[in-house]
């Protein structure tokens, strides 16, 4: 009987410990589940970008087609109407509507703010899965915007071509969607912060349909990005991601 | 021939328009622009000219694999005394394009320029069609163009154009290939004899010419590199043109990004006027000596809405200089203010220095000291 008094609590503790271990989720699983929601293989997206600097505002609208590592974006707002970007792998091409010229864009321009926004061409057109670019680990749990989140940190994998050396991501524990992301330079300096402002479930996937990117190196500036409509796995005609179609 | 082509094309566009379903969305957009140009003459006198233009484009939905474009420009021409016209209409685009599986066929007035990212393009379909970021009317031609793709980034373009002031066809062919991240092109252009009447001078004849060119563009580490080699043959006289350039972005603290572009051009004096485009035509008198130019462009975004840039052109042969600073500010969502200038500096009779220029009635007889332009443009 005395033995039972010892064995039972120990067994209880073991069960709790083992069940916790069994339920513990790894950083890779969290990111993969986040990618299941947010990583888009093929889609047609209509979106709006609002660039805000102090009291000034600039609105850009666009239609994008993505398929794996390829992407085609066409601007539809009056000032940029007809401007197109074609991304094939790491190559970026631009179509100038007035001249109807197709010009290859130098690689160093990829880090530049896209059409004056806080999103770089890389931010918009980054087509690799985060797990392919970063080594992630869970560094804690925190609440963000009233939602319990896993807090993950990703460090760029050696040799990976990334715009930001380190990322911190707040991932909703229930919906597995990134609610906040901090982007850092290798020096440790915080460069950009993005926040999901609105999250919607579309075709069974949670997606941030409204988000805000703030460049922390500039004051009073932010870019709002809204998905107006999205269609997953649309029928994309052959030859869409070609120079022939770009012109 | 050209008139018949234009009438046929207009009819085709109208047929296409009327055959569109009522639900199809057509739209009109464009740009309204007004610019005050102040020119400082050699003696310090200032003359001003107001230029206004309205660019109108009809955006039509694609009709199957066929698209139609119609864009025209209404403008009051600079130097009205020269033409006597107060207002003019210029059709920039009026064409039909059909995308076959292995051929894009474009018929009508269309822009044709073979840019590869340089400030000057010595191997363009029309020399000077686009120069230092500015386009000229030379880019818009009545033509038939066929583009045959070989793969996603390689193909062959064939152009037969009907130039104004000539009864013959101008034709060109351009091959493009993407190899290991480099964009390589090869082209050939045959220009017919062109005869133009210049007021106050008389008839001016440009004899037939042949041009061939090679270009490349790609990345060398963090630097974007490009270049061109051209061969010109006119009046049994041969000459070569060479261009080598690069661009680079310098980041200061991840935020302040300055973009640099630098290029070297070696060209026969006779051909420089054409390459520099309409904006700078008249700077050089004829001659077959070789000129060496160094061009640059430094641009700096002040913030999301405004930027400054400086474009210098230096003649390496005589040290004369042209400076083209530009400030641009997006005032409202679609309203842009642009302030730019051109300053010429050099000794008497140097490339960009004070000298007599082509005596055309109504045009200044000397290269000005500088030009200042203040303009607003509104996109809709």
From the helix content, strand content and strand pairing of chain A, which structural class follows? alpha+beta
Report the portion of residues of chain A in β strands.
over 45%
As a whole number of angstroms, the C-alpha radius of gyration of chain A is: 22 Å
Outline the low-pLDDT stretches of chain A. none
Distance between the termini of chain A: 86 Å
What proportion of the residues of chain B form beta strands (DSSP E)? over 45%
Task: Count the domains of chain A.
Answer: 1
Q: What general form of chain A does the structure show? A: elongated
- CATH architecture level-2 label of chain A: Clam
Structure class of chain B: mainly beta
Sequence stretches where pLDDT stays below 50 over 5 or more residues of chain B = none
| Count of alpha/pi helices of chain B | 3
Describe the model.
The complex is a heterodimer of chains A (247) and B (380). With 247 residues, chain A is α+β, with helices and mostly antiparallel strands. Chain A has one domain: Lipoprotein localisation LolA/LolB/LppX (outer membrane lipoprotein receptor (LolB), chain A, Clam), CATH 2.50.20.10. Chain A has 5 helices and 13 strands. Chain A has helices at residues 2-23, 27-38, 121-125, 130-133, 243-246, and strands spanning 42-53, 56-67, 70-75, 84-88, 91-96, 101-105, 134-144, 147-156, 166-172, 178-184, 190-202, 205-215, 221-232. A 13-stranded antiparallel β-sheet of chain A has the order 6-5-4-3-2-1-13-12-11-10-9-8-7. The N and C termini of chain A lie far apart (86 Å). Chain B is mainly β and 380 residues long. Chain B has helices at residues 2-19, 80-83, 269-276, and strands at residues 27-40, 46-59, 66-75, 88-100, 103-111, 130-131, 134-135, 140-151, 154-161, 170-179, 182-191, 194-198, 202-206, 209-220, 223-234, 237-252, 256-268, 290-301, 306-315, 321-330, 335-345, 370-379. Chain B has an 18-stranded antiparallel barrel. Chain B has a two-stranded antiparallel sheet with strand order 6-7. Chain B has a two-stranded antiparallel ribbon with strand order 12-13. The radius of gyration of chain B is 22 Å and the shape is globular. Chains A and B meet through strand 2, strand 5, strand 6 and helix 5 of A and strand 5, strand 8, strand 14 and strand 16 of B.
């Amino acid at each position: 009987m005395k033995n039972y008094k010892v064995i039972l609590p120990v067994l209880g503790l073991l069960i709790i410990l083992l069940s916790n271990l069994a339920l513990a989720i790894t950083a890779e699983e969290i990111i993969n589940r986040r990618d299941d929601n947010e990583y888009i293989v093929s889609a047609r997206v209509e979106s709006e970008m609002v660039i805000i600097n102090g009291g000034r505002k600039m609105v850009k609208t666009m239609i994008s087609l993505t398929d794996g590592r390829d992407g085609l974006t066409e601007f539809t707002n009056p000032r940029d109407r007809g401007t197109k970007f074609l991304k094939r792998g790491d190559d970026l091409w631009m179509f100038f509507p007035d001249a109807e010229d197709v010009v290859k864009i130098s690689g160093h321009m990829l880090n530049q703010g896209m059409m004056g926004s806080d999103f770089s061409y890389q931010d918009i057109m980054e087509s690799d899965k985060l797990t392919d670019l970063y080594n992630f680990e869970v560094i804690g749990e925190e609440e963000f915007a009233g939602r319990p989140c896993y807090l993950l940190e990703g460090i760029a994998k050696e040799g990976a071509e990334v715009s930001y050396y380190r990322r911190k991501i707040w991932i909703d524990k229930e919906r597995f969607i990134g609610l906040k992301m901090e982007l850092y330079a290798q020096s440790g300096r915080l460069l950009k912060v993005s926040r999901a402002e609105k999250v919607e479930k579309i075709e069974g996937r949670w997606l941030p349909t409204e988000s805000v990117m703030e460049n922390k190196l500039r004051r009073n500036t932010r870019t709002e990005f809204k998905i107006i409509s999205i269609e997953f796995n649309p029928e994309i005609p052959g030859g869409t991601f070609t120079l022939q179609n770009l012109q | 021939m050209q008139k018949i082509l234009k009438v046929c094309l207009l009819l085709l566009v109208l047929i296409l328009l009327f055959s569109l379903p009522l639900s199809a969305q057509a739209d009109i957009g464009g740009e309204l622009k007004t610019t005050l140009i102040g020119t400082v003459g050699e003696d310090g006198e200032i003359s001003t000219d107001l230029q206004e233009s309205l660019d109108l484009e009809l955006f039509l939905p694609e009709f199957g694999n066929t698209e139609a474009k119609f864009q025209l420009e209404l403008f009051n021409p600079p130097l009205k005394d020269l033409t006597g016209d107060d207002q003019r209409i210029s059709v920039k685009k009026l064409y039909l394009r059909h995308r076959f599986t292995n051929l894009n066929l474009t018929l009508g007035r269309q822009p044709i320029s073979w840019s590869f990212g340089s400030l000057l393009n010595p191997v363009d379909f029309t020399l000077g069609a686009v120069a230092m970021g500015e386009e000229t009317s030379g880019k818009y031609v009545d033509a038939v163009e066929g583009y045959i793709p070989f793969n996603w980034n390689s193909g062959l373009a064939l152009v037969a154009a009907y130039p104004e002031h000539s009864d013959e066809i101008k034709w060109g062919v351009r091959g493009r290939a993407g190899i290991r991240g480099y964009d390589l092109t090869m082209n050939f252009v045959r220009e017919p004899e062109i005869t133009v009447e210049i007021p106050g001078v008389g008839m001016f004849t440009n004899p037939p010419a042949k041009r061939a060119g090679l270009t490349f563009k790609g990345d060398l580490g963090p630097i974007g590199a490009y270049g061109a080699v051209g061969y010109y043959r006119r009046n049994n006289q041969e000459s070569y043109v060479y261009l080598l350039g690069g661009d680079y972005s310098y980041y200061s603290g991840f935020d302040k990004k300055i973009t640099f572009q630098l290029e070297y051009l070696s060209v026969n004096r006779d051909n420089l006027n054409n390459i520099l485009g309409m904006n700078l035509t008249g700077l050089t008198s004829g001659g077959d000596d070789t000129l060496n130019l160094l061009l640059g462009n430094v641009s700096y975004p002040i913030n999301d809405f405004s930027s400054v840039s400086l474009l210098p052109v230096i003649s390496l042969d005589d040290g004369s200089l042209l400076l083209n600073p530009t400030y641009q500010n997006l005032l409202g969502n679609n309203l842009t203010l642009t302030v730019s200038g051109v300053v010429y500096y050099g000794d008497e009779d140097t490339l960009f220095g004070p000298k007599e220029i082509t005596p055309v009635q109504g045009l200044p007889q000397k290269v000005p000291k500088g030009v200042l332009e203040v303009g607003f443009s509104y996109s809709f």
